[in-house]
Amino acid sequence: QSGGVFAGSIVVLVIGFGSNFVLARYFGSGVVGRYALVLNVVTLVGILSIFGFDQGLVKYVPQYRETDDFEQLHRTLSDALSASTFLALLTGGSLVAGHDLLATRLFDDPDLSGPLFWAGCMLLPHTLFKVLGGLYKGFKYAAYYKFAGQVLLKGLFLVGVLILSVTEYRGIVWVVGLYFVAYLLVCGCLFAGLRSFELDVGRVISG
Predict the structure, then answer these.
(1) Residue 25 CB-density burial (10 A; 0-12 exposed, 13-18 middle, 19+ buried)
(2) Residue 116 CB neighbour total at 10 angstroms
(3) Rounded to whole angstroms, what are the CA distances from 114 to 48, 78, 150, 166?
(4) Helix axis angle, 70-97 to 113-138, nearest 10°
(5) What is the pLDDT of residues 67-114, one digit of tens each?
(6) CA torsion angle 180 110 164 37 (round to 10)
(7) Cβ contact 124:91 at 8 Å
(8) Which of 126, 156, 147 is nearest to 40 (CA)?
């Protein structure tokens, strides 16, 4: 596990460097700066929506598996997903509703209005991505999460950025929207991967 996680971390850094290089080379410093700002906003606001559920799953999932308390395991996972989804919709919806105000009043940059709208949309997949990461780590599948989650996310974004770099769609809105789509695809893969665990996935999702 540790070797896979370490290798995955190296791959993430390399792909991230490649993405930043392409952005700086073909999209300009303005796009790079706004892209970094938007990701920081998502990360900061995401702290509220994740609410520590990812770390809680890392702690409690192994305990419930060790005692074969699958009833409590399902309940804990369902509660974590339900609560984090609600908080993500609440915080993301607030960001979507106030994206114009934040762009013009807080950041004094009207061009950030569109990217902040997508940032609000991104909060739900970002939150689920982190919470599912805690679940995978709790099940001792940290290496799988590293590659099927973080590496895949960065890889999809790099491919998308390379495609955008040869088109006329080089604005910050397209870049942030691309990251949002990559998040959705990766979350779908992570949810599909839950079927390899001893879980009733439908029960976990539906509560």
Answers:
(1) exposed
(2) 26
(3) 22, 33, 25, 22
(4) 170
(5) 888 888 888 888 999 999 999 999 999 999 999 999 999 999 999 999
(6) -60
(7) no
(8) 126
